[in-house]
What we know:
2 copies of one chain form a homodimer. By secondary structure, the first copy, chain A, is α/β, with parallel strands linked by helices.
Amino acid sequence: MDYEEPQFFRVMQYAARADRDVVDMVSGNPDWDPPEGLRDGLRDYAEADAGDYQYPPSVGLAGLRDAIAARRGVDRNRVLVTNGAGEANHLAMTGGLHYFDGTEVLLTDPVYPYYAGRANFLGADRSFVPVAEDNRLRPADVRAAASEETAVIVVNSPNNPTGAVYDADAMAEFAAIAEENEALLVSDEVYDHFDFSGRFASALDADSPNVVATNSFSKTMAITGFRVGYAVFPPEDGPTGELLERARTQHMLTNVTGSRPAQYAVLRALKTTPPDYYAACRRRLERRVDAFCDALAEAGAAYNRPEGGFYVLARFPDFPGTFENVYELIDEAGVAGMPGEAFGESRSDWIRFALVTPRVDEAAARLAAYFE
Amino acid sequence: MDYEEPQFFRVMQYAARADRDVVDMVSGNPDWDPPEGLRDGLRDYAEADAGDYQYPPSVGLAGLRDAIAARRGVDRNRVLVTNGAGEANHLAMTGGLHYFDGTEVLLTDPVYPYYAGRANFLGADRSFVPVAEDNRLRPADVRAAASEETAVIVVNSPNNPTGAVYDADAMAEFAAIAEENEALLVSDEVYDHFDFSGRFASALDADSPNVVATNSFSKTMAITGFRVGYAVFPPEDGPTGELLERARTQHMLTNVTGSRPAQYAVLRALKTTPPDYYAACRRRLERRVDAFCDALAEAGAAYNRPEGGFYVLARFPDFPGTFENVYELIDEAGVAGMPGEAFGESRSDWIRFALVTPRVDEAAARLAAYFE
């Protein structure tokens, strides 16, 4: 198959079988604690009335949609709570392919493999736009690639795996390109709380009827297993209002609704978590970025310093990002990353390291020693 | 649209606006307490390590799959934990339509509207087999309706809305018909703990490569909002093994995985809940069935005495199951049911009442008084 998990698993299983200690920098699971309010929410929910254990509204708990709508500055009606950003992206991509005439999904290279796998599963044609040398996607390149065949354009900022962050101008351009080509821009913004650059802008700021923004609390609250995400669709009374109506139907017929304990806990955390929590998470990641990048520089590696998110791409001299080389790093250096070739062609010389481990320094030292 | 919720909502919203007290017998939400072990599971999970808040395996927590596999007498590999039975049915139906040549989904009349809505959404042709006078689906009628055009046959036992329970012979016949027509039998068994007849048999007993059984803990544990269900697919190494492989991929690309707090709590409840809990729930429903059916008899109504599940279909003299009449019952009798016409043609003279309210006696008395 053509999506991330088996490749993830391949590497993680290899690391688990290794005859030595290995620092896991493969998975995208935050290693820090969730907000205390989230645990409070779970505690309260354990004592809730039986009625509170029954179906929430299919579109999500009203309070949760309110909180999301307030944060995103949109009408609550546009917010659909989903089973993580995975379902949000799924609904958006299938919706765009159904609504617009084209059959093509425009993706970036390197690509988060789920996007490519999903497009493939849906029978769409896929086209990949390579990012520039600085890891950013150039609107001009997207415009050149887009055509009347294009139904969906997917962008992700802060980006997995490149760490690029797109500013308001870039996002407005992407939205304009979607409009010009009668396509849907799907903007996956799950790492938006981890913007180190200060330049992050949501695609929603483009105020376009051709934009769906997706997000989740998986990374922000360190709860990838809770599956609480959302999509913000164009207004129902606008020219593309059908997208929202159909997404609601598809969500209903696929999942009925999302899981209520998780939604309840997230809502509590949204209401009670001070800004310090998010700032501390961001600072922790920035420190790890600094330490890891410094060590990579010492090891003579090329690397991207991420503008956001928690992944670093590194390129070691004469050591391309193949599965074979990644396995060698596991066995010989005791560090597990993801081979760049898993993300497409343009970064196949690189290896992705996820900084969601307290052992970043140790991993960096091991890499430096190995490549010394 | 062509699925249940808006119709549900139409009736529930009408009832909520009514200028009087109304007994809600519309929704399918159990009104009793979940097992205490479920709450214990939530309490423990609130204190769990941060690592336990991250992605569970896409196919579900291993312990949960083990417990399901043991209960159903199948290999764990065949069990896919889903976001409720809704997703399980969705995966099974889409899988059958993809794998087999036909484009037709064979449903019963009356039908649980989600099945019909889903088939419609997926672009399938739909064909409805009316149940017999006794509310049971006759295998001979299904056989006569099935053809090489048939890709999926959906059955539901104990049945919503008729209360029919299919025995092992009927299930074996349904499976054989699926095999004969190169189609998939999807057997939705979510009410299996509420079998009053003692004749319930799972479609899995037919031991056929053309059967997917779906289920959930929503009704059994009174947790419709948790969204923990599952599908048992044919063995991966059998002739239809591709169904399982594709369902896993579709699940991954749609939802990534299910919600972990809910899976964790259900697993705890499965391990700790004594048989008494389930028996008490069944007895409670049996008492309600008796009381409600007795009152219907007094009111001069025809009714089905359900063999399982928690719905009763009733037919009042010269009072067909239209939305109009249901609204009249809300306003004049203070009882809200679902119009039979929402479930198809064969029971359009009937009204469905869900016995998931402690006020069954009161509702029965109101109906008796109204039709006196």
